[in-house]
Design a protein that fits this description.
Number of domains: 1
Number of strands: 0
Helix content: over 70%
Strand content: under 5%
Structural class: mainly alpha
Length: 130
Amino acid sequence: MKAKPFLFIVTILVFLLSEVDFAWTAAPGQADTVSQSSFLEVVLNFVILLIVGGCFFYTKKIESFLKGGELSLAWLLILGSFLILFFLQVFKLGNSMNVIKLDLALYSFFKLLWVILLGWGIYRLKKVLS
């Protein structure tokens, strides 16, 4: 019963980090020629970056309380997943502001790595606690 808020947060993060196309904000006729990013996309990416940064530091604080116990590996995996997610959001924010050119294959690989680490960490938590 206590895992429901955590799973809810993970579900919301996965939903927010899904690929959303904000092409409807471009003027008619420009969508085909110019790949402009909207102000809304930049703001949403920045808000998600702040949330992920908060999750990273909160997870780091929990992991520091464990000091090498049985749950330490699980929280390290979750911590690593939030670190990867933080850098993915930095690159996505830079891409939406046209500062960084983002390779879709590399981005997808690290997103898959993020999901694997997060799932493995949650699995380890469940395994140790049951």
